UniProtKB/TrEMBL annotation, chains A, B, C:
Species annotation: Roseivirga pacifica
Record bears the keyword Zinc: no
Official protein name in the record: Uncharacterized membrane protein YeiH
Keywords linked to the UniProt accession: Cell membrane, Membrane, Transmembrane, Transmembrane helix
Entry similarity comment: Belongs to the UPF0126 family.
A single GO cellular-component term on record: plasma membrane
Pfam families named among the record's database cross-references: Gly_transporter
Domain Glycine transporter: 12-86, 98-170
Localization, UniProt: Cell membrane
Length: 206, 206, 206
């Protein structure tokens, strides 16, 4: 997943995103009647589900996390952290939200770049970027037997899609690569914060 | 997905099938508490889910719709049409049913041919043809948290399976390729109409 | 799936495992409001789901059961047997449980070996072995709209994971290959029997 390694920073943030997704997966699973093992599996799937689907669809196998054990270490750390600091995480909602937003921003960009590197079109790349960011959560919700959150309330995926488009447009305009990444992340964080603060959502169809 | 291009007609009908599947996916999703985005995703998955699973299982990656943007255009058109002409589509149930039947017939044949072209056996090809036709609907139902329709009431898949066998037998008997396609489609449409008119279904197991 | 063919016995037990999984899939599906076709699909998915996911993730396509029709024959036999001997199977719970345990043991080992043969790390191989053994059941439960059993009550997967670790350790210690397989199977059977007898399970998280 180090397709863009303009800096080591990105790799670190990607691992951080994986860690945060594992934590959030575990916290959500722990509200269901799941045992320790089940919750860990859900945490794992939440963290790698998106990238795995992307890799399988574009034909990049073995899928990303299999080739670099650091992803498994990040997930394990997320599970351990969720177990020991459950209350802390529930208090630090805002911090978690920030990390989660950075995570989906990075996942969107990494997924987009990887898809382009396979010679596919920008439209498909933007979709794959979004899938990388959101599909883990979709799987998580489906496995705990709920209609995925993303299909019901939030404009979560819209943030990724529009962030992907923004990122791609900046690429066309030959914006500096670091700036391109930073601006996209800032855009995604701002959009998500605004949408939560203002309670934005698409109306359910009647 | 243009493995059989004995005519441009087939390509056009394949795109039409994709369009119709997107419409039906959107209409079904719109009855659930889904927002605009969620319903669009369900429409997309309904349209490409079957072909995607087939391509991943036989190892044809990147999967079909990624390589030809016309499929995305057909889906987008289906979503737009479903939004603006929702009532019309609900009135035109019979026309929709006809298109849907043509769609599953074509998807069955295309899936079967593509699988054979990968050197797999006819039995597997008939299964993959059926998966191409029905799996989109299975995913749609699973995502909106219902036991897939296909597992409960309809003999939908039986139509595809038997249609696939018919198509394959005609291939063995060296029937003219166009005739082979047309007869299979007619068989599938007739079988589905008869099954709906007569309310055929397998009994639930007790 | 004949990666380890130290004996024809393993191939036979693999097919037996497939048969048993198909039977158990059909029996569970038959308690839901599924028609004959739906129950057969669930039986099929239960039997091949794990190996299919493993093959797709590691990039071994077309997936295993497509290349060897004996797997389809074993599944068909399982479905036919489940239909005709439903009551018998329900009486023979203990025998079924034994076969099922042998099945998951074998599936774990075969999945682990296949993953190693693709040059992936032992940690990933143990995970893939476990996925081979348990994912069919996860899919089955998800499709019939339940939170997968494995996430709720049983320590099913723990058995596979620890069995995989044991098998791998014996490999490091250069234990004779046949012995390695037999001891792993005995371990898995014993662990499962003990866990059921003693009603072991992880507590649900509160």
């Amino acid at each position: 997943m180090q397709e863009i390694d303009s800096t080591q920073l990105i790799y670190a943030v990607d691992l951080t995103g994986t860690f945060v997704f594992a934590v959030s997966g575990w916290l959500i699973a722990s509200k269901k009647e799941l045992d320790f093992f089940g919750a860990s599996v859900i945490a794992f799937i939440t963290a790698v589900g998106g990238g795995t689907l992307r890799d399988v669809l574009i034909g990049s196998q073995p899928v990303g996390w299999m080739a670099d054990l650091n992803y498994l270490v990040a997930i394990l750390a997320g599970i351990v952290a969720a177990i020991f600091f459950k209350r802390l995480f529930e208090k630090l909602r805002k911090t978690m939200f920030l990390f989660d937003s950075i995570g989906i921003g990075l996942f969107t960009i990494l997924g987009l770049e990887k898809t382009l590197s396979f010679g596919l079109s920008p439209v498909v790349a933007i979709m794959m970027g979004t899938i990388s960011a959101v599909f883990g959560g979709v799987l998580r919700d489906t496995l705990v037997n709920e209609i995925p959150l993303i299909f019901r309330k939030e404009i979560y995926a819209t943030v990724c899609l529009s962030g992907g488009i923004l990122y791609w447009l900046m690429g066309i305009l030959e914006v500096n690569a670091d700036l391109q990444i930073i601006l996209t992340i800032i855009y995604i964080i701002s959009f998500r914060i605004l949408s939560v603060v203002n309670n934005w959502s698409f109306r359910a169809i009647k």
